[in-house]
């Protein structure tokens, strides 16, 4: 059986609704909104041995918080027509006019009052209700084939514009898209590509859009290997970054370190340099086998636009993923970043992961990075906890960049269920302010958001 159907990754098999969740500690009264996180949750697996983690339909896990209470927990599969069929439900009726009808499993965001599940490539964004039921396909930027926005969008905190990168397997172009708060397309730019690289994330600064041309490529032949993913590693393909003006214009390519960029922490302009802080995987990342020689590290790549070079600096060589910053500093200089270190992730991906971890003390932890001072604080959870991505939520009226909360799902091995853990970002290693006890396990998932009430 695939390792992604077992242990912390094992899917859950039913949808649950629970009200008035028990809490250890105190839920800050100023928090009003929903914390949502999505991930693949397999359904109707035909061949458990060959199951690929990323191929599972998305399931959203959400907690609603208001007036110091955790009002509800819900988990819901995103409904594609296939998911509806597997669940024995009638057709949803609405056809996806811009891409493929797949139950998006990678990110869930709020934009313009809507809750949207996202995935890259041709997957059509899907709108969810406030209570996580699927409304149907939603075409950010209008109904035009291929305008799928990708999995990782960037919301400019000053303009309120949402930037996305649409890349489409089988097409030798990507597209930078910008939509306003009402979901209207306000800018688009074509990015010619040499081949069909996987472009999971990108970066945004005040002046530039930065895209990653990776050694992982779309390959229909890969599907025939039983890998169940259309992407495969091309060891001959060099790693590049492309820089194009936000307002439009041609892309300029730079030779990049030999690595696969999995996620951007943030990016910003520094005169004629573009600073990218990101999590990279080694160039031998084999997405079909879901194996690599080491796990993700936190790095800084500095693109010198005058010299035409990219300099690499390792900020933290401990295995970690899921970098997040305060949404208020996206595309501008930042100081703090937050990542997750998860033993189960490391053990699932790295061949030697069945053996001792690189640092036994550094597992199942959330990390707060001070990228200006070059220091970090580690909030360690118990053995067999599984800390996933954590998001930063600003305190009401907070002025400092880290004045707020860090929240995410962490497995509690004593209960066999997940907690939504809320840390004080400025007292990061202290006991959590609150542990909201969910009634069940939440499988290790991908990305999510805090969606405040408006
Ligand atoms: Fe991602």
From TrEMBL:
Enzyme class, spelled out = oxidoreductase
Required cofactor names: Fe(2+)
Record's cofactor remark: Binds 1 Fe(2+) ion per subunit.
Report the domain of life of the source organism. Bacteria
- Pfam families membership: RPE65 (PF03055)
State its Enzyme Commission number(s).
Answer: 1.13.11.-
Is Zinc-finger there in the keyword field? no
Q: Which UniProt keywords apply?
A: Dioxygenase, Iron, Metal-binding, Oxidoreductase
Family under the similarity heading: Belongs to the carotenoid oxygenase family.
**What protein name does the entry list?**
Dioxygenase
What is the organism of origin for this protein? Streptomyces ardesiacus
